[in-house]
Amino acid sequence: MSGPVRTEDADVDAGRGEDVPRPTVEVTPSRTTEVGAITVRRALPRRGRRTVGAWCFADHMGPAQVTEDHGLDIGPHPHIGLQTVTWLIDGAVLHRDSLGSEQEIRPGQLNLMTAGHGVAHAEEPTGRYRGPLQGIQLWVAQPERTRHGPPAFEHHAELPRLDLGAGGTATVLVGAVGDTRSPARHDTPGVGAEVALRPGTTAELPLDPTFEHALVVLVGAVRVDGVAVTPGHLAYLGERRDELALAADPDDGARLLLLGGVPFESPISMWWNFVARTHDEIDAARAAWEAGDESRFAPVASSLPRIPAPPTPWGP
Fold first, then answer.
1. Alpha-carbon radius of gyration of the chain
2. d(Cα 212, Cα 198) in Å, to the nearest integer?
3. 14: pLDDT confidence band, cut at 50, 70 and 90?
4. Measuring CA to CA, which of 64, 212, 233, 262 is 20 to 30 A from 124?
5. Does residue 19 have a pLDDT over 70?
6. Rounded to the nearest 10 degrees, how much is the dihedral formed by the CA atoms of 94, 173, 227, 211?
7. With left for phi above 0 and alpha for psi between -120 and 50, is residue 65 left, alpha or beta?
8. In the prediction, which pLDDT does 16 show?
9. Does residue 135 carry a pLDDT above 70?
């Protein structure tokens, strides 16, 4: 599910996005692409909307049918300067990384990997699960104080939920919704939550007014300020909201990701699987990966082939 970011998604170097009225509902289409053997809808980054808080990447994967040995077949590849946040609504995926982690993830569970100075991982079939696979992988840009630090991995089998009354529930992946707080690491002030709404209901969520927010709908549809939001789109909500009212589709309800955070501290450079600040940093990481530098990217115990880095768009 992870990457790669291409120049079709957004410029390698850019600010956080265009100035827009606050609050707002700005709906932009995702870009359909292939990652491994799975079709994904890339909501972030997009031209004109690079980040939402520190969230800089959002791939809605599937739905697709997978087997025990084939489906999500993404061999070892590197990351720097980001955290991967993996969340499934159907299926199972096996994560392996250069720290020695081997962790199966299922719906309702969270995998969070911190790249820091450098990490490599693979995302594989489980060898057991056959059926539908659907989920989302998100990247969070790391701030200056942690992006050169050591890599890490954590798995949360259970996450806290906020009861939204008749409307449904919100599961807090990262940060907090109201007083309901996730135990997962986060390096900048922000929030990530899955909201599950029952058909035909309306729910209200408390928001931090210092954050900017956005929605990615995974299933069904919602209306925000009278604007319909469906899968395959990012709805940017702007800043200065202290609550959010969501009205669910009357037939299917909705499942969606709420993303938010303080506008990111600095412009970032994104290319392939790297989040950095300069081309030189990306060039150095690419060279280390291509050279097999195990001091930066240790081996991953995966049977899938290692993914080579493509040439950079700015040349050698």
1. 18
2. 26
3. low
4. 233
5. no
6. -130
7. beta
8. 54
9. yes
The CA distance from 218 to 256, in Å, is 5
**Residues facing residue 82 across a β-bridge:** 141
**The pLDDT value given to residue 315:** 74
At 158-198, the pLDDT tens digits run 999 999 999 999 999 999 999 999 999 999 999 999 999 99
Residue 308, helix vs strand vs coil: coil
The pTM (predicted TM-score) of the whole model is: 0.94
Closest listed residue to residue 309, CA positions, set 46, 124, 152, 118: 118
Q: Are 58 and 24 in contact (CB under 8 A)?
A: no
DSSP readout, 166-229? GGEEEEEEESEETTEE--S--SSSEEEEEEEE-TT-EEEEE--TTSEEEEEEEEE-EEETTEEE
The percentage of residues in the chain with a pLDDT greater than 70, rounded to a whole number, is: 94
From residue 289, how far is each of 109, 119, 157, 299, 305 by CA, in Å?
A: 30, 10, 32, 10, 14
Distance CA 106, CA 65 (A): 15
Q: Please state, in angstroms and rounded to a whole number, the distance separating the CA atoms of residues 143 and 154.
A: 19
Amino acid at 77: H
Q: What is the 3-state secondary structure (H, E, C) of 220-283?
A: ECEEECCEEECCCEEEEEEECCCEEEEEEECCCEEEEEEEEECCCCCCEEEEECEEECCHHHHH
Which contiguous run of DSSP H or E holds residue 298? none
Please report the pLDDT score of residue 15 as a whole number.
55
In this prediction, residues 136-160 reach a mean pLDDT of 98
